[in-house]
Structures are given as C-alpha cells and as structure tokens.
C-alpha cells in the first residue's frame, strides 16, 4: 500500500467507482451514492488491512459493509441494491494479485503462481461471501416483515 492519507484513498476509490458506475449505465441520480459506497468500502478495507494485516478478513468485512450500505441505499433511493453493490466492490477486486498470478505462470514460477493464485481465490471468495451474508440477511428480514404484514391483515 502507498503512504497516502486515508482520505486520498477514499477520494480515488470514490472517483474510480463513479467511473465504473458510468460504464455500467447507472442512473445519474445514483452515481454519487454508488461512488461513495465504493469509497467507504475501500477506506474501511484500507483501515482494516493496516490494522490487522489479514487480507481475507479485511475484504470480507469491507464487502459486507458495501453490501449493507447498498441495501440501505436501495430502500432509500428506490433502486435495486445491485446498482450499488457491483460498482462498490470494484475497488476491492484483487486485480494486481490476478496479474501477478498470470505473470508467475508465464515465467514458469509455479510455486509463486499457486501461492498468489490461492490468495486471490480466497479474497474473491471473501468478497462474495461478505455480499452474500448481508444480502441474504436483508432478504430474510424483508420476507419476515412481509409475513408479519400479511398475518396482521
């Protein structure tokens, strides 16, 4: 990681997330909230990686935070949560790790390729699991509240 202050990480991640949001044709009114979601997720990841030095846990918790913010924004702004989740996790995707895995394979350094590739797979799994846990919890709470409403009628 670089020696930039955390607010610069937040700013650059927000700008990158807005850029990907434009690429994904997200409605204009959702661009800033989507960008802030990615910036907050990356800022949280950056804080966790500097304090815990556990890449997998930091990605899991950051992805869970992105999913939680996305679920909240989806209800407030009346958009699907996926509009905020996908751009929001873009800064968390381990692109450098994927690149290094392929580089080590091309260089026939299979030991490093397997090590780096396994880490990339675990990080990707942690990101997916973080989103899955929060999204499943939100859907379960939504179903329970709908069932209570039907029961009361």
Commentary on this structure:
This protein is mostly helical and 153 residues long. The protein has one domain (6-152). The chain is built from six helices and no strands. It has helices at 6-23, 31-52, 55-77, 82-89, 95-106, 110-152. Helix 2 (31-52) packs antiparallel against helix 3 (55-77) and helix 3 (55-77) runs parallel beside helix 6. The mean pLDDT is 94. This is Membrane spanning protein. The chain crosses the membrane at residues 6-24, 31-50, 56-74, 81-100, 120-147. One of its GO terms (cellular component) is plasma membrane.
List the helices and strands and how they pair.
Blueprint: H1 6-23, H2 31-52, H3 55-77, H4 82-89, H5 95-106, H6 110-152
Strand content: under 5%
Strand/helix succession = HHHHHH
* Alpha-beta content class: mainly alpha
* Helix amount: over 70%
Distance between the termini: 55 Å
Shape: globular
How many individual β-strands?
0
Q: Report on the biggest sheet.
A: none
Global mean pLDDT: 94
Which segments are poorly predicted (pLDDT under 50) over 5 or more consecutive residues? Answer: none
Instruction: Return Rg in Å.
Output: 18 Å
Integer tally of domains: 1
Give the helix tally.
Answer: 6
What keywords describe this structure?
153 residues, mainly alpha
Quick recap of the structure?
With about 150 residues, this protein is mainly α.
């Amino acid at each position: 990681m670089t020696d930039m202050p955390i607010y610069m990480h937040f700013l650059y991640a927000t700008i990158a997330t807005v850029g990907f949001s434009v690429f994904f044709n997200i409605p204009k009114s959702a661009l800033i909230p989507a960008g802030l979601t990615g910036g907050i997720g990356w800022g949280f990841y950056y804080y966790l990686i500097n304090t815990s030095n556990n890449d997998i846990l930091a990605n899991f918790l950051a992805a869970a935070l992105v999913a939680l913010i996305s679920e909240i924004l989806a209800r407030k702004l009346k958009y699907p949560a996926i509009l905020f989740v996908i751009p929001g996790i873009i800064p968390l995707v381990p692109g450098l790790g994927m690149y290094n895995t392929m580089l080590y394979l091309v260089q026939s350094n299979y030991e490093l390729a397997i090590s780096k590739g396994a880490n990339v797979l675990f990080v990707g799994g942690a990101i997916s699991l973080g989103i899955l846990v929060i999204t499943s919890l939100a859907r379960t709470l939504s179903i329970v509240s709908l069932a209570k409403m039907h029961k009361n009628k």
